[in-house]
Design a protein that fits this description.
The structure holds 2 protein chains of 2 kinds.
Chain A (H helix, E strand, L loop, with lengths): L2 E10 L2 E11 L3 E5 L6 H9 L6 E6 L11 E4 L11 H11 L5 H10 L13 H14 L4 E5 L7 H17 L1 E6 L2 H7 L2 E6 L2 E7 H6 L1 E4 L9 E6 L2 E5 L10 H12 L8
Parallel strand pairs in A: 3-7, 3-8, 5-6, 6-7
Antiparallel strand pairs in A: 1-2, 1-4, 8-9, 10-12, 11-12
Helix pairs in contact in A: 3-4
Chain B lengths: L1 H13 L1 H10 L5 H13 L2 H6 L3 H5 L5 H26 L4 H23 L6 H12 L16 H19 L6
Helix pairs in contact in B: 1-6, 2-3, 2-6, 3-7, 3-8, 6-7, 7-8, 7-9
The chains are: A alpha/beta, B mainly alpha.
Chain lengths: ~270, ~180
Protein backbone atom coordinates (compact mmCIF):
# COMPACT_ATOMS: atom_id res chain seq x y z
CA UNK A 1 0.00 0.00 0.00
CA UNK A 2 1.44 3.38 -0.98
CA UNK A 3 -0.79 5.52 1.24
CA UNK A 4 -2.77 4.48 4.31
CA UNK A 5 -4.81 7.06 6.19
CA UNK A 6 -6.66 5.92 9.30
CA UNK A 7 -9.13 8.04 11.26
CA UNK A 8 -7.37 11.31 10.51
CA UNK A 9 -8.45 14.29 12.61
CA UNK A 10 -7.20 17.88 12.66
CA UNK A 11 -8.47 21.07 14.26
CA UNK A 12 -7.16 24.62 14.10
CA UNK A 13 -7.94 26.19 17.46
CA UNK A 14 -11.69 25.80 17.90
CA UNK A 15 -12.28 25.06 14.20
CA UNK A 16 -12.56 21.39 13.38
CA UNK A 17 -11.28 20.84 9.87
CA UNK A 18 -11.04 17.07 9.60
CA UNK A 19 -12.91 14.66 11.88
CA UNK A 20 -12.58 11.19 10.50
CA UNK A 21 -10.82 10.60 7.21
CA UNK A 22 -9.68 7.12 6.24
CA UNK A 23 -8.62 5.75 2.87
CA UNK A 24 -5.95 3.69 1.15
CA UNK A 25 -4.23 4.23 -2.15
CA UNK A 26 -2.42 1.42 -3.91
CA UNK A 27 -1.73 2.97 -7.32
CA UNK A 28 -3.04 5.28 -10.01
CA UNK A 29 -5.02 8.45 -9.40
CA UNK A 30 -7.02 8.86 -6.23
CA UNK A 31 -9.28 11.87 -5.97
CA UNK A 32 -10.64 13.57 -2.86
CA UNK A 33 -13.90 15.24 -3.78
CA UNK A 34 -15.92 17.59 -1.67
CA UNK A 35 -17.33 21.07 -1.35
CA UNK A 36 -15.29 24.06 -0.18
CA UNK A 37 -14.19 23.64 3.43
CA UNK A 38 -14.82 19.89 3.40
CA UNK A 39 -11.30 19.10 4.61
CA UNK A 40 -9.59 18.13 1.35
CA UNK A 41 -6.75 20.62 1.62
CA UNK A 42 -6.18 19.86 5.31
CA UNK A 43 -5.97 16.17 4.47
CA UNK A 44 -3.38 16.86 1.77
CA UNK A 45 -1.42 19.12 4.12
CA UNK A 46 -1.28 16.29 6.66
CA UNK A 47 -0.17 13.87 3.96
CA UNK A 48 2.63 16.18 2.87
CA UNK A 49 3.89 16.57 6.43
CA UNK A 50 3.24 20.29 6.36
CA UNK A 51 1.01 19.96 9.43
CA UNK A 52 0.73 17.20 12.00
CA UNK A 53 -2.66 15.54 12.53
CA UNK A 54 -4.18 15.64 16.02
CA UNK A 55 -5.55 12.12 15.74
CA UNK A 56 -5.22 9.16 13.42
CA UNK A 57 -2.38 7.66 11.50
CA UNK A 58 -0.74 8.22 8.13
CA UNK A 59 1.62 5.74 6.52
CA UNK A 60 3.26 6.46 3.19
CA UNK A 61 5.30 3.68 1.62
CA UNK A 62 4.72 1.95 5.00
CA UNK A 63 6.62 4.66 6.86
CA UNK A 64 5.85 7.85 8.71
CA UNK A 65 5.48 10.94 6.54
CA UNK A 66 8.61 12.67 7.89
CA UNK A 67 10.73 9.69 6.84
CA UNK A 68 9.63 9.77 3.21
CA UNK A 69 9.24 13.47 2.43
CA UNK A 70 11.73 13.26 -0.44
CA UNK A 71 9.31 10.91 -2.19
CA UNK A 72 6.45 13.40 -1.97
CA UNK A 73 5.91 16.50 -4.11
CA UNK A 74 3.11 18.95 -3.53
CA UNK A 75 1.07 21.38 -5.61
CA UNK A 76 -0.42 23.69 -2.98
CA UNK A 77 -3.86 25.16 -3.32
CA UNK A 78 -2.81 28.70 -2.41
CA UNK A 79 -0.16 28.77 -5.18
CA UNK A 80 2.16 30.76 -2.94
CA UNK A 81 5.60 31.26 -4.42
CA UNK A 82 8.94 32.59 -3.23
CA UNK A 83 9.67 36.23 -4.04
CA UNK A 84 12.36 37.47 -6.44
CA UNK A 85 12.73 34.11 -8.14
CA UNK A 86 12.58 33.17 -11.79
CA UNK A 87 12.10 29.80 -13.45
CA UNK A 88 15.84 29.01 -13.33
CA UNK A 89 16.04 29.80 -9.60
CA UNK A 90 13.19 27.41 -8.93
CA UNK A 91 14.81 24.76 -11.06
CA UNK A 92 17.98 25.04 -8.98
CA UNK A 93 16.04 24.78 -5.73
CA UNK A 94 14.07 21.73 -6.83
CA UNK A 95 17.19 20.00 -8.15
CA UNK A 96 18.78 20.49 -4.72
CA UNK A 97 15.93 19.10 -2.68
CA UNK A 98 14.59 16.31 -4.90
CA UNK A 99 17.24 13.62 -5.56
CA UNK A 100 15.49 12.37 -8.71
CA UNK A 101 14.74 15.76 -10.24
CA UNK A 102 14.14 15.47 -14.02
CA UNK A 103 15.53 18.57 -15.79
CA UNK A 104 14.68 17.30 -19.27
CA UNK A 105 11.01 16.78 -18.45
CA UNK A 106 10.88 20.16 -16.70
CA UNK A 107 12.26 22.02 -19.71
CA UNK A 108 9.84 20.19 -22.00
CA UNK A 109 6.91 21.23 -19.82
CA UNK A 110 8.14 24.83 -19.55
CA UNK A 111 8.42 25.02 -23.33
CA UNK A 112 5.09 23.30 -23.88
CA UNK A 113 3.23 25.67 -21.56
CA UNK A 114 5.20 28.71 -22.83
CA UNK A 115 6.20 29.66 -19.30
CA UNK A 116 8.20 32.90 -19.40
CA UNK A 117 11.69 32.44 -18.00
CA UNK A 118 12.53 36.13 -17.72
CA UNK A 119 9.80 37.17 -15.27
CA UNK A 120 9.69 36.71 -11.51
CA UNK A 121 7.28 33.88 -10.76
CA UNK A 122 5.21 36.01 -8.37
CA UNK A 123 4.24 38.17 -11.37
CA UNK A 124 2.75 35.21 -13.27
CA UNK A 125 -1.02 35.07 -13.78
CA UNK A 126 -2.97 32.58 -11.63
CA UNK A 127 -3.19 30.09 -14.50
CA UNK A 128 0.50 30.43 -15.36
CA UNK A 129 1.43 29.85 -11.70
CA UNK A 130 -0.64 26.66 -11.75
CA UNK A 131 1.09 25.42 -14.91
CA UNK A 132 4.54 26.33 -13.59
CA UNK A 133 4.09 24.79 -10.16
CA UNK A 134 2.54 21.71 -11.70
CA UNK A 135 5.54 21.37 -14.03
CA UNK A 136 7.86 21.53 -11.02
CA UNK A 137 5.80 18.96 -9.12
CA UNK A 138 5.68 16.51 -12.01
CA UNK A 139 9.42 16.93 -12.73
CA UNK A 140 10.41 16.46 -9.08
CA UNK A 141 10.87 12.72 -9.56
CA UNK A 142 8.81 12.11 -6.43
CA UNK A 143 6.79 8.89 -6.34
CA UNK A 144 3.73 10.42 -4.72
CA UNK A 145 2.26 13.67 -6.04
CA UNK A 146 -0.27 15.58 -3.95
CA UNK A 147 -2.16 17.96 -6.21
CA UNK A 148 -4.61 20.45 -4.78
CA UNK A 149 -6.98 21.78 -7.46
CA UNK A 150 -4.53 21.11 -10.32
CA UNK A 151 -6.65 22.90 -12.94
CA UNK A 152 -7.39 26.00 -10.88
CA UNK A 153 -7.31 29.18 -13.00
CA UNK A 154 -6.79 27.37 -16.31
CA UNK A 155 -8.68 27.96 -19.54
CA UNK A 156 -10.61 24.97 -20.99
CA UNK A 157 -7.88 24.06 -23.49
CA UNK A 158 -5.11 24.10 -20.90
CA UNK A 159 -7.38 22.13 -18.54
CA UNK A 160 -7.69 19.39 -21.15
CA UNK A 161 -3.93 19.34 -21.67
CA UNK A 162 -3.26 19.13 -17.96
CA UNK A 163 -5.77 16.32 -17.53
CA UNK A 164 -4.08 14.37 -20.32
CA UNK A 165 -0.64 14.90 -18.79
CA UNK A 166 -1.88 13.87 -15.35
CA UNK A 167 -3.36 10.66 -16.78
CA UNK A 168 0.03 9.86 -18.27
CA UNK A 169 1.81 10.65 -15.02
CA UNK A 170 -0.73 8.53 -13.12
CA UNK A 171 0.36 5.45 -15.06
CA UNK A 172 3.80 5.60 -13.41
CA UNK A 173 3.26 7.41 -10.14
CA UNK A 174 0.64 7.67 -7.46
CA UNK A 175 -1.40 10.86 -7.56
CA UNK A 176 -3.73 12.13 -4.87
CA UNK A 177 -5.81 14.97 -6.26
CA UNK A 178 -8.15 17.25 -4.33
CA UNK A 179 -10.83 18.90 -6.40
CA UNK A 180 -14.45 19.92 -6.57
CA UNK A 181 -14.71 19.95 -10.36
CA UNK A 182 -16.80 16.85 -10.91
CA UNK A 183 -16.47 16.54 -14.69
CA UNK A 184 -12.69 16.71 -14.50
CA UNK A 185 -12.55 14.21 -11.67
CA UNK A 186 -14.60 11.74 -13.66
CA UNK A 187 -12.04 11.94 -16.47
CA UNK A 188 -9.14 11.56 -14.06
CA UNK A 189 -9.95 9.31 -11.13
CA UNK A 190 -9.34 5.61 -10.74
CA UNK A 191 -10.55 5.70 -7.15
CA UNK A 192 -12.15 8.45 -5.14
CA UNK A 193 -13.38 9.49 -1.71
CA UNK A 194 -16.17 11.97 -1.09
CA UNK A 195 -15.39 14.23 1.87
CA UNK A 196 -17.99 16.36 3.56
CA UNK A 197 -17.62 18.33 6.78
CA UNK A 198 -14.32 16.64 7.56
CA UNK A 199 -15.54 13.07 7.09
CA UNK A 200 -15.25 10.55 4.29
CA UNK A 201 -18.85 9.77 3.42
CA UNK A 202 -18.15 7.38 0.55
CA UNK A 203 -15.13 5.88 -1.18
CA UNK A 204 -14.81 3.46 -4.01
CA UNK A 205 -13.50 2.70 -7.44
CA UNK A 206 -15.15 4.93 -10.04
CA UNK A 207 -16.72 2.13 -12.11
CA UNK A 208 -17.62 0.00 -9.11
CA UNK A 209 -19.40 2.93 -7.51
CA UNK A 210 -21.62 3.38 -10.53
CA UNK A 211 -22.41 -0.32 -10.67
CA UNK A 212 -23.55 -0.37 -7.06
CA UNK A 213 -26.05 2.47 -7.48
CA UNK A 214 -29.09 3.30 -9.59
CA UNK A 215 -31.25 6.30 -10.25
CA UNK A 216 -34.89 5.27 -9.90
CA UNK A 217 -38.28 6.91 -9.50
CA UNK A 218 -40.13 6.72 -6.18
CA UNK A 219 -42.63 4.13 -7.42
CA UNK A 220 -39.80 1.76 -8.41
CA UNK A 221 -38.36 1.58 -4.91
CA UNK A 222 -37.84 -1.99 -3.69
CA UNK A 223 -37.42 -3.20 -0.15
CA UNK A 224 -33.71 -4.04 -0.54
CA UNK A 225 -32.85 -0.60 -1.95
CA UNK A 226 -30.95 1.76 0.32
CA UNK A 227 -31.98 5.34 -0.37
CA UNK A 228 -28.96 7.62 -0.50
CA UNK A 229 -30.65 10.86 -1.46
CA UNK A 230 -33.58 12.28 -3.38
CA UNK A 231 -32.41 14.24 -6.41
CA UNK A 232 -34.32 16.49 -8.81
CA UNK A 233 -34.69 13.75 -11.43
CA UNK A 234 -35.30 10.79 -9.16
CA UNK A 235 -33.62 9.15 -6.22
CA UNK A 236 -30.20 7.58 -5.88
CA UNK A 237 -30.32 4.16 -4.29
CA UNK A 238 -27.70 1.60 -3.47
CA UNK A 239 -28.88 -1.75 -4.75
CA UNK A 240 -27.80 -5.10 -6.11
CA UNK A 241 -30.78 -5.46 -8.45
CA UNK A 242 -31.13 -4.27 -12.02
CA UNK A 243 -33.11 -1.06 -12.09
CA UNK A 244 -33.75 1.96 -14.27
CA UNK A 245 -30.31 3.44 -14.94
CA UNK A 246 -26.81 3.85 -13.62
CA UNK A 247 -26.11 7.21 -12.02
CA UNK A 248 -23.79 9.74 -13.57
CA UNK A 249 -20.76 10.46 -11.43
CA UNK A 250 -22.06 13.94 -10.71
CA UNK A 251 -25.33 12.54 -9.37
CA UNK A 252 -23.51 10.06 -7.20
CA UNK A 253 -21.30 12.68 -5.60
CA UNK A 254 -24.07 15.22 -5.09
CA UNK A 255 -26.33 12.60 -3.55
CA UNK A 256 -23.74 11.55 -0.98
CA UNK A 257 -22.89 15.14 -0.11
CA UNK A 258 -26.61 15.96 0.15
CA UNK A 259 -27.11 12.96 2.43
CA UNK A 260 -24.29 14.04 4.73
CA UNK A 261 -25.02 17.78 4.75
CA UNK A 262 -27.05 19.90 7.06
CA UNK A 263 -29.99 21.20 5.01
CA UNK A 264 -30.14 24.91 4.39
CA UNK A 265 -32.73 27.12 2.77
CA UNK A 266 -32.95 30.88 2.57
CA UNK A 267 -36.63 30.44 3.44
CA UNK A 268 -35.83 28.80 6.80
CA UNK B 1 23.94 19.73 3.19
CA UNK B 2 21.68 20.09 0.17
CA UNK B 3 18.72 20.90 2.39
CA UNK B 4 20.73 23.60 4.08
CA UNK B 5 21.80 24.94 0.70
CA UNK B 6 18.14 25.00 -0.31
CA UNK B 7 17.24 27.18 2.71
CA UNK B 8 20.33 29.33 2.22
CA UNK B 9 19.69 29.96 -1.48
CA UNK B 10 16.08 30.74 -0.84
CA UNK B 11 16.99 33.22 1.93
CA UNK B 12 19.60 34.94 -0.23
CA UNK B 13 17.18 35.22 -3.18
CA UNK B 14 14.20 36.42 -1.21
CA UNK B 15 15.90 38.51 1.46
CA UNK B 16 19.15 39.64 -0.16
CA UNK B 17 18.45 43.35 0.50
CA UNK B 18 17.87 42.77 4.21
CA UNK B 19 20.95 40.56 4.51
CA UNK B 20 23.23 43.13 2.85
CA UNK B 21 21.84 46.02 4.93
CA UNK B 22 22.16 44.04 8.18
CA UNK B 23 25.72 43.03 7.27
CA UNK B 24 26.83 46.66 6.87
CA UNK B 25 24.83 48.05 9.80
CA UNK B 26 26.45 45.45 12.03
CA UNK B 27 29.87 46.97 11.32
CA UNK B 28 28.97 49.84 13.68
CA UNK B 29 30.81 49.27 16.96
CA UNK B 30 28.03 49.72 19.50
CA UNK B 31 26.69 46.80 21.52
CA UNK B 32 23.16 48.24 21.78
CA UNK B 33 23.05 49.11 18.09
CA UNK B 34 24.29 45.65 17.12
CA UNK B 35 21.59 44.05 19.26
CA UNK B 36 18.96 46.03 17.34
CA UNK B 37 20.53 45.11 13.98
CA UNK B 38 20.59 41.44 15.05
CA UNK B 39 16.90 41.64 15.85
CA UNK B 40 16.17 43.22 12.48
CA UNK B 41 17.96 40.39 10.68
CA UNK B 42 16.80 37.46 12.80
CA UNK B 43 13.19 38.62 13.01
CA UNK B 44 12.96 38.92 9.24
CA UNK B 45 14.25 35.41 8.62
CA UNK B 46 12.04 32.51 9.79
CA UNK B 47 9.96 34.59 12.27
CA UNK B 48 8.77 36.79 9.40
CA UNK B 49 7.89 33.69 7.37
CA UNK B 50 5.86 32.40 10.30
CA UNK B 51 4.18 35.80 10.63
CA UNK B 52 3.26 35.71 6.91
CA UNK B 53 2.24 32.04 7.00
CA UNK B 54 5.03 31.32 4.55
CA UNK B 55 6.75 28.67 6.61
CA UNK B 56 4.10 26.26 5.32
CA UNK B 57 5.42 26.79 1.82
CA UNK B 58 8.86 25.68 3.03
CA UNK B 59 7.36 22.75 4.90
CA UNK B 60 5.69 21.48 1.74
CA UNK B 61 9.22 20.65 0.55
CA UNK B 62 11.21 17.72 1.97
CA UNK B 63 12.33 19.77 4.96
CA UNK B 64 11.70 19.20 8.64
CA UNK B 65 10.62 21.94 11.00
CA UNK B 66 13.77 21.78 13.12
CA UNK B 67 15.91 21.95 9.99
CA UNK B 68 14.31 25.18 8.80
CA UNK B 69 14.62 26.62 12.31
CA UNK B 70 18.29 25.77 12.76
CA UNK B 71 19.39 26.57 9.21
CA UNK B 72 17.89 30.06 9.36
CA UNK B 73 19.57 30.67 12.71
CA UNK B 74 22.85 29.45 11.30
CA UNK B 75 22.53 31.72 8.25
CA UNK B 76 21.75 34.81 10.37
CA UNK B 77 24.55 34.02 12.83
CA UNK B 78 27.12 33.47 10.08
CA UNK B 79 26.30 36.76 8.34
CA UNK B 80 26.57 38.74 11.56
CA UNK B 81 29.70 36.93 12.72
CA UNK B 82 31.51 37.68 9.46
CA UNK B 83 30.53 41.32 9.85
CA UNK B 84 31.56 41.23 13.52
CA UNK B 85 34.98 39.72 12.80
CA UNK B 86 35.61 42.35 10.13
CA UNK B 87 35.31 44.97 12.87
CA UNK B 88 37.73 42.95 15.00
CA UNK B 89 40.23 42.75 12.14
CA UNK B 90 39.86 46.22 10.66
CA UNK B 91 38.77 48.38 13.58
CA UNK B 92 40.84 46.38 16.10
CA UNK B 93 37.79 45.85 18.30
CA UNK B 94 37.91 43.42 21.19
CA UNK B 95 36.95 39.93 20.07
CA UNK B 96 35.08 39.43 23.38
CA UNK B 97 32.41 41.86 22.19
CA UNK B 98 31.66 39.59 19.24
CA UNK B 99 31.45 36.49 21.45
CA UNK B 100 29.07 38.32 23.83
CA UNK B 101 26.84 39.01 20.86
CA UNK B 102 27.14 35.41 19.69
CA UNK B 103 25.72 34.30 23.05
CA UNK B 104 22.89 36.85 22.71
CA UNK B 105 21.82 35.68 19.23
CA UNK B 106 19.91 32.56 20.43
CA UNK B 107 17.86 34.79 22.74
CA UNK B 108 17.10 37.34 20.01
CA UNK B 109 16.10 34.68 17.48
CA UNK B 110 14.22 32.68 20.13
CA UNK B 111 12.17 35.64 21.39
CA UNK B 112 11.21 36.62 17.85
CA UNK B 113 10.27 33.02 17.01
CA UNK B 114 8.16 32.61 20.16
CA UNK B 115 6.39 35.91 19.49
CA UNK B 116 5.57 35.10 15.86
CA UNK B 117 4.63 31.48 16.63
CA UNK B 118 2.22 32.81 19.26
CA UNK B 119 0.75 35.18 16.66
CA UNK B 120 2.10 38.33 18.35
CA UNK B 121 4.29 39.52 15.50
CA UNK B 122 7.93 38.98 14.66
CA UNK B 123 9.35 42.39 15.57
CA UNK B 124 7.34 44.72 17.85
CA UNK B 125 7.16 42.68 21.07
CA UNK B 126 10.70 41.29 20.70
CA UNK B 127 11.98 44.85 20.22
CA UNK B 128 10.23 45.93 23.42
CA UNK B 129 11.74 42.98 25.33
CA UNK B 130 15.21 43.77 24.00
CA UNK B 131 14.96 47.47 24.90
CA UNK B 132 13.73 46.63 28.41
CA UNK B 133 16.53 44.12 28.91
CA UNK B 134 19.15 46.61 27.75
CA UNK B 135 17.59 49.43 29.78
CA UNK B 136 18.02 47.47 33.01
CA UNK B 137 21.54 46.34 32.23
CA UNK B 138 23.02 49.17 34.39
CA UNK B 139 21.71 47.32 37.47
CA UNK B 140 22.19 43.81 38.90
CA UNK B 141 20.15 42.62 35.90
CA UNK B 142 23.35 42.65 33.80
CA UNK B 143 24.40 39.41 35.50
CA UNK B 144 21.34 37.55 34.21
CA UNK B 145 20.71 39.62 31.07
CA UNK B 146 20.74 37.40 27.97
CA UNK B 147 21.74 40.43 25.90
CA UNK B 148 24.40 42.00 28.11
CA UNK B 149 25.91 38.58 28.97
CA UNK B 150 27.40 39.74 32.27
CA UNK B 151 27.68 36.18 33.58
CA UNK B 152 27.12 32.59 32.54
CA UNK B 153 23.47 32.86 33.67
CA UNK B 154 22.78 35.16 30.71
CA UNK B 155 24.11 32.51 28.32
CA UNK B 156 21.99 29.81 29.98
CA UNK B 157 18.84 31.96 29.69
CA UNK B 158 19.64 32.70 26.06
CA UNK B 159 19.98 29.02 25.21
CA UNK B 160 16.87 28.08 27.19
CA UNK B 161 14.78 30.63 25.26
CA UNK B 162 16.24 29.31 22.02
CA UNK B 163 15.35 25.70 22.91
CA UNK B 164 11.86 26.75 24.03
CA UNK B 165 11.28 28.53 20.72
CA UNK B 166 12.44 25.44 18.82
CA UNK B 167 10.01 23.29 20.80
CA UNK B 168 7.17 25.77 20.11
CA UNK B 169 7.90 25.82 16.38
CA UNK B 170 8.22 22.04 16.25
CA UNK B 171 4.86 21.69 17.99
CA UNK B 172 3.23 24.12 15.50
CA UNK B 173 2.57 26.67 18.26
CA UNK B 174 3.30 27.30 21.93
CA UNK B 175 -0.29 26.73 22.99
CA UNK B 176 -0.82 23.32 21.44
Amino acid sequence: MVVEVKNLGKRFGSVVSVVDVSFEVENGIFVLIGPNGAGKTTTLRCLSGEITPDTGEINIFRKEVKEVKEKIAVLREDRRVFSNMKVKDYEELYSLIYPRWNPVLFRRLVLHFSIPGDQPVEKFSAGMKTLFLLSLTISSGADLLLLDEPTQGLDPIKKEEVMKILREVGEEKVLIVASHHLEEIEMLADNFAIINEGKVVYRDNLDAAKEKHRIIQADELAEEDEIISVLENGMLVRTEREAERYPRFRELVLAYIEKASKHFSILD
Amino acid sequence: MKRMEFVLRRDFKEKSGLIIVAFFLFLTPSHFWRIIVSLILFSYLLPKDVEDGKENLLLSFPLKRWEIFLYDFFIGTTILLISGFITVGVLKMNVTSVFRLLLAFPFIYGVSMISSTAGKGNFGIPLLILILDMAFSWSWWRYVSPLYQGSVIGAVISILVFVLSLICFNKEGCGS
